[in-house]
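User
Class, as today's exercise, I want you to study this protein, comparing sequence with structure tokens, and judge whether sequence predicts the tokens.
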Amino acid sequence: MNIQTVIKTGFRYALTYAVLLAVFVTTLTLVCALPNERIQKNILDSVPQMRQEGLRYQAFGHELSTLDGFTDQLIAEMQFVVDPANPFKAAIVSYREDFDYLDIIERVAAGGEKVTDNYARYWHGYAVWLRPLLMLFNYGQTRIVMNVAFYALLAAVFALLYIRTKDWWSGVPLALALLSVYLFTIPMSWQFFSVFAVALAVCIYILLKLKNAEFVPKLPHVLFISGALTTFIDLTSAPLVACGFPLIISLLVIYRHKYISSVREYAALGAKMVFAWGLGYVILWVSKWVLADAVFRLGTISGALERTRAWTYGEAQLYPEIIWWKAPVFVFEYTFRSFALPAFLFLLALVAFVIWRAVKHKDHMLWVFLGAGLMPVVWFMVAYSHTYVHYFMVFRALSVSIMAIISAFCCALWRYYQTKKKNAKILRGKQKKGKNKKSRKR
């Protein structure tokens, strides 16, 4: 890569960053300027349902279907106390008060003390779609909208996967990955929905554009935008899905069509995509801290760094049972429960087959899929305090590992049968030539 290419790439990313930052601030300010009367009415109408469901409602009678009522109540409180008279401040400061969110909503509605604390370390970009919805619908009704949107996005991904690959199995990894983390709960919660919607939307964009090898070099830039959108709308519920899903789908399509023949280029592409996503995620998140401190002197940077310390190793001082290397095991056991051992052995068998194909048949591109599957494992171990405390929502990031393993297995199996079919065709050709020689001798 020459110096001109580096400068051009750097300029493109810097321009993208500037545009995204401007879009984030502008859209949040605009939705905070929306009249609050109807929003407050629909939130007040939602309070009885939220109170009845509580903080950890099991939507389908199973622990894996636990919804994050705590965060949804927090979001409701934050949207209720938005002041449209000062939308920019409301967008950047993000007022909230812990912890009895529903009581606080009713207190403010009755003309009581206003909320003055802030939650400025997050963007709270979910408000861009949620506040317009709350002008029309209450909590239960927004779930209907989220369900329609989620399954429409999912159907579009499956359809485009088939169009791009012409293989029925191409949607199997994503389907099994989502089923393993109880996909039915995702569009039931404001907290869960946003990041999966971004992940699926980015997948759709990639599948629409990835028609040939020309789009391949642009994939890291797409993942940079995905990382930025993730930090904009997500409250660290399962951010890795917005990196892992688009990454694995891209790798699958490229593998299927051989857009890249070099293993080194294939691995380099995967690494660039992950790095670009992380760059977008971190830079735009830190930008929110800097913006909040620069304009309103909220102490956001120091507070955010303290929470980062707490969610990595900080809580371990309070809970000695929290051990960093056990975090992935804890999540896996929570996800599969009594089936943890059979599920582990099943996935291990798939990995063993993939490794056999990669080593014996020199199909080294399969290693890249397995590498992608390690991302949640690393995430759980680094943010291990956060993983132990919020296991009921972060376990969904495990879907990236499951999707990566099953994708690698499907690709290996497909290549195995393609090779077998090719060898059978060659053998039939040789047999036909031998018969023709014998007939000529006669």
Q: What stands out?
A: Residues 3-423 form one domain. The chain has 20 helices and no strands. The longest helix spans residues 398-441.
